């Protein structure tokens, strides 16, 4: 009992000191991730910068033949199958990014500065844990378990089982909840919302002929996707699906601006990676989920266009609604496309040669 009392006294003193310090410490403005750029601006411009930076990396790989053995399509397919010039794609993406930045900065102007007091928040969770611990004996009693008697059998005094003060483990648990569990839940909720929002809109675009021809067909002019074309959409479709969807996910998941920077930058990188046309075996973005470059590339093929609507994170909704690609001849179909493009390219060269010889 004395050992328990000594532990209670020591931890109570530390917890009381933390509580007084936290409650007396003023709220502070969240510091910027990059000193000379406000986080409210960074959340808008960083995803755009990441989009073009990594698109350039994939383009360099394409131009120089690097990692060519991991390409899903051949250069001949790129030349013969796509129905839109690359410069037109870049122009279309720039229009969407300008719209995205204007809306984002406009909303950021009215967004209040974030105020944080991490110490106070942790102490609040310690208090919640303490409150929950006090009710544990009564809660277990409902199931017929005498928690206090159980504590005595393992040589833990009953007072320690039911009335230990703010112990070190409670502070550790509170920090784990605040720094790990809550953010993990927020990110998971945001990802689930984005996937749900985009699946619904994407599915409708394919099921309604007018919507497809008027809006979504533009994106499917790329039968051979590449990184720059990830966000090549009709401006209205891009605004509703990407900009509005992201804003709603931000609100629903109650992300902080800093969390929004991380989440939207990661989502952008994932989207670029999925459209890159490279199936890299060591790419972490293609390992943590089956919704990878091949998964989305199948959707861009004429034979897979009615499947694999899910993007950008998981394949959950495709599995729920049975729209996931289930063909066992995927490799054969890809090889057939390569051969047809190669033959068409050879015929074109021969035609040019014959024309010039005449």
General description of the model:
- By secondary structure, the protein is an all-alpha fold.
- The protein has one domain.
- Helices cover 68% and strands 1% of the residues.
- It contains 14 helices and two strands; from the N terminus they run αβαααβαααααααααα.
- The chain has a two-stranded antiparallel ribbon with strand order 1-2.
- Helix 2 (39-64) packs antiparallel against helix 4 (86-110), helix 3 crosses helix 14 (330-357) and helix 5 crosses helix 8 (168-207).
- It is elongated, with a radius of gyration of 28 Å.
Strand order of the largest sheet: 1-2
Q: Shape from CA axes?
A: elongated
The arrangement of helices and strands along the chain is HEHHHEHHHHHHHHHH
How many independent structural domains? 1
**Major beta sheet, specifics?**
2 strands, antiparallel
Beta-strand share of residues: under 5%
Radius of gyration: 28 Å
Measured distance between first and last alpha carbons: 106 Å
Uncertain parts? 1-9, 156-165
Mean pLDDT: 87
Report the total helices: 14
Helix content: 55-70%
Structural class: mainly alpha
Number of DSSP E strands: 2
Provide tags for this entry.
358 residues, mainly alpha, two-stranded antiparallel sheet, 2 strands, disordered N terminus, membrane
Brief summary:
This protein is an all-alpha fold.
Strand and helix map with partners:
Layout: H1 2-24, E1 28-29, H2 39-64, H3 75-81, H4 86-110, E2 115-116, H5 118-142, H6 147-153, H7 158-163, H8 168-207, H9 209-214, H10 235-252, H11 257-274, H12 293-300, H13 316-321, H14 330-357
Antiparallel strand pairs: 1-2
Domain Fatty acid hydroxylase: 188-323
Transmembrane segments: 40-61
GO biological process, one term: lipid biosynthetic process
